[in-house]
Write the structure tokens for this entry.
Amino acid sequence: MEYDLIVIGAGAAGLMAAGTAAESGLRVALMEKMEKPARKIRITGKGRCNLTNIKPAEEFLEKVQVNRDFFVPAYTQFGNKALVRFFEKHGVKLVTEQGGRVFPKSGKAWDIAEALTEWCEDSGVEIMTHTTVEKLLLLGTKIRGVGYRTKKGFERRLEAPAVIIATGGASYPATGSTGDGYALAHSVGHTIEAIRPSLVPLETGLADKESLYGLHLRNIRLGLIIDGERVAEEFGEMSFSSRGAEGATVLRMSRKAVDALIDGRKVELSLDLKPALDKQTLQDRITREMEALTPENPTSDLLRKLMPRELVMPIAKLADTHPKRQLKYFDDKVCNALIDALKDFRIPVTDYRPFEEAIVTAGGVAVSEVNPETMESKIVRGLYFAGEVLDIDANTGGYNLQIAFSTGRLAGRLRHED
Ligand SMILES: Cc1cc2nc3c(=O)[nH]c(=O)nc-3n(C[C@H](O)[C@H](O)[C@H](O)COP(=O)(O)OP(=O)(O)OC[C@H]3O[C@@H](n4cnc5c(N)ncnc54)[C@H](O)[C@@H]3O)c2cc1C
């Protein structure tokens, strides 16, 4: 055999796995269906690549939404500090920003993609682009190689005693992550936990939602209400677009919202526009604002002091008033309804956006069938997994790329447990 290892997918996990194996002296082929490696890394973090988060291990692991225990050995062996050292050693200067998020100092995700690719090439990895793996070849319960298609459409085979599936999830398929790894894993007996979009915008059923398009809110508190029960809360920013509700607070609670929608449960967002003010303080603020106005002023003059223009009409409706109505009609009942609307503006969630708009994929290869100490399949010897293809996903903040790098590093060591 020409190669000791075939890695499928040159994303964060695949590049890390391939380089690690090649550095230890193995002959590695890295197959990538796209025209160049790391298409997705190049668009991460709005083009800046939030590659990890510098939070202490316990806090870091809390952000892993599912199968945290499975991830612990990979993270312990190659965690955030090791990753930072790795990139600095390979010439990428990094900076840590608010919330512990780590970025390349240049502000260019491109630098991370290039550093990884160069490191692989320098370590002797053969990167085969325009190469789509379509089959896993087995000899009994041992891996034997892969069947792939070349750029020109020819079917070929390549043999190796070890294969790593690092094909990513099904999100942003234009980057090459089209979910192929699930079919490959399933074809050799692996269970695939149902995949669904995560860190994804949510569609809303607001009556006049178009009027909110383009609205960006900062310093708000957002609650997630499922069947009337508040199940999550986030503080930060959110925005409204033709896609629905998005922004960090929405994305962070989208996983729970998506699962509830799939189960047919009632999902709402509760927007608190004044999280720093309790109801009494808000009441005092409204009284103060009223004192500066006359009874002849329209209610909109008061509302504009309390909220952005786009929210005036929907909140006036909830408070059972109209922006044009004079303030002399603004009584206690309207005032209390206004306070309620400012503290708990309910947004019905009707659906979630598709994989094309999801930052990550929830679900994937069932981790109960993968050894967490090695990333080797418990079903097929010599077959390994790394990255988003596995049923692990985390919140925004650099955690998902770290999952890919940690599991890639471990898989690339090609350890067996007898
Ligand atoms: C817009 C966006 C922004 C993001 N920003 C961040 C961020 O700032 N921080 C963060 O932590 N996470 C971020 N993420 C998530 C993060 O990018 C992913 O979790 C991570 O890239 C997963 O790495 P991976 O190597 O497992 O998969 P991928 O990066 O998806 O790589 C998989 C590779 O496999 C290739 N492939 C697939 N099938 C085949 C096949 N059959 N044959 C050959 N090759 C194949 C694909 O072309 C692809 O190159 C972001 C995601 C998106 C979409």
